[in-house]
Amino acid sequence: MNGRIGTPSQVSPHPLPSPASGAALTPCSLPLPPESPAPRALSRKRERGSDRRACARQRYPIGAGGFTLLEMLMAIVLLGLLLAGAYSGIQTSVRAMHAGERLIERIDRVRTVQEFLRHQLTRILPISYAQTDAKTYVFEGQRDFMRFVAPMPGYLSHGGPYVQTLALVRGSGGMSLVFSGTMLNGFDWQEEKKSEREPVVLIDHIGDGSFSYRALDDQGQLAPWSTSWDDSSITPLLVRVELTMQNGAQINWPVLAVPLMLDAGAAHPQPMVIPRLMPNAGGTSR
Amino acid sequence: MMRSSGPHPGGQRGVALVLVLWAIALMAVLLGSFALIAHTEQLESRHVFDAVTARYDAQAGLERAVFELRNNDPAQRWVADGRPYEFVFDKAKVSVEINDESGKVDLNVADETMLTSLFISVGVELDRAAALADAIVDWRDPDDLPRTNGAEVAEYKQAGLAYGPRNAPFQTASEVQQVLGMDYELYRKIEPAVTIYSGSATPNPAFAPFEALRTLPNMTDDYARQIIELRQQMLPGQPGAQPLTLPDGTPIVVNGGGLTYSVKCRAVLPNGVSTVLDASIRLGGVGTTGRPYTILRWRDGEAS
């Protein structure tokens, strides 16, 4: 090909005194000499390209030069592949990291909630929050609902006993465990006075769950767990919270069984209840 | 792109290597931060585990206290005047302080004078102390007539509170925070000195903790500290070398304690994790749970 093997002498009509001298630049900036034939645009381009190459050779005589299109394409493709590889690698690791972080967050949440529940449930006070003709309400317990009186953490409240509820509420994204607390002072069971703060969702994405209760039977022996608490005038000995998380939640809820530390009848002026003497006092569990 | 033909100027040659290095650096940063989070999480789990262990160790302290308080030998019996007892339980160091509740100010029985000096002793100025004392009496008396500085329903409404006084005795000591003018900080200060279980109008100086001793007439900090120091040197069942007296000369007689105690147990694990259990118990009788004592108040797991 004639364009490729052009030498400075062929391109320029005027031979240069020395290829390394600064004067070598001048001919390159000049248009093609008029006497050179220009039959088609393509060949002209080629010639011009070879011109440049030749000029470059002149400028960088140690063999520096441009790239062919093919070289450029290959370089770009290779670079693209490398970048894509690196990007996807980083992307994967970021995703993995986020998944791990979410898991840690969930674990943290479960731990905090369990600690909070334990804190509240151990401190359940045998104080009645409502009274009807037939019944005194100290502790209500069902499969998905619990109401009791206990102190709140000091910084969260005005102190003193609070009527607190724990409920499993079914929503669109599965069940959630909801907590609310209202000051016992002025608590009206019938009208459900609005609580000081909004009910708090402790944990969500629950597939299924239940509360169960346990007490001593007539013989003074531990009775089996029961999902309903019949005698609202006394507190159970143990409360258990069992939750099954949804599949997507990626976490398990360890069964939480909490002993109630404060003895029933302790804060009442009436004499203490002794289960062995009073057959029904230990709580009747089904 | 061989060296021989040399189309690359020197600087461009290692682009792949640079890229890979960057990618590795980025991933290292990501991984490092994740490792940090995971490590924190692991530490946290570890701490929870230790805290649970420490909590049960502290509970062992409570059981031991009950046992020692019922000791048949009066010389060996633990004294409920707040002196520290220490023992090692399952490698944890457990220290137990028992205070007879009769050494504290009973919120349901104490009169305004007593309550006023209680507040003054923790640094409240006279006017506010008198108002708080009146408000406490108004809280527990059944009527709706406010005292001079006290507060009944109208005053609570005026202060923007959604509740009024209960007009009944306090059910828990912490309920005093609901009284008009009280706040959490002030409650924290008076907490060691108050109870609802003693039933006597003035604290018994033989068992009173520092905060309750301070409420007695003419008491100074130094004198209270001195009383406690001397009191703790006395051996159970024997009279002290010199009889202790209050500032007004009344001798302090070590008896008349009730059966209600507040027990403070602190368990420290070998690795430094500690927890405090603060409970009030009443000895005697059998509770529904079959314990030989009744738990009246329970506060645990509050790290300190």
What is the element layout, followed by pairings?
The complex is a heterodimer of chains A (286) and B (304).
Chain A lengths: L7 H4 L13 H5 L11 H19 L9 H54 L7 E2 L4 E2 L2 E2 L3 E7 L9 E11 L2 E10 L16 E15 L23 E8 L10 E4 L27
Antiparallel strand pairs in A: 1-2, 3-4, 4-5, 5-6, 6-7, 7-8, 8-9
Chain B lengths: L14 H55 L11 E9 L2 E9 L4 E2 L5 H10 L4 H15 L12 H6 L25 H7 L3 E2 L14 H4 L7 H13 L26 E9 L5 E10 L9 E7 L5
Parallel strand pairs in B: 3-4
Antiparallel strand pairs in B: 1-2, 2-5, 5-6, 6-7
Helix pairs in contact in B: 2-3
Notes on the protein architecture:
The complex is a heterodimer of chains A (286) and B (304). With 286 residues, chain A is of the alpha+beta class. Helix content of chain A is 29%, strand content 21%. In chain A, the strands form 2 sheets. Chain A has a 7-stranded antiparallel beta sheet with strand order 3-4-5-6-7-8-9, with helices on one face. The model of chain A is unreliable at 1-47 and 265-286 (pLDDT under 50). Chain B is an alpha+beta fold. A 5-stranded antiparallel beta sheet of chain B has the order 1-2-5-6-7. Chain B is extended. Classes of the chains: A alpha+beta (286), B alpha+beta (304). Chains A and B meet through helix 4 of A and helix 1, helix 5 and strand 7 of B.
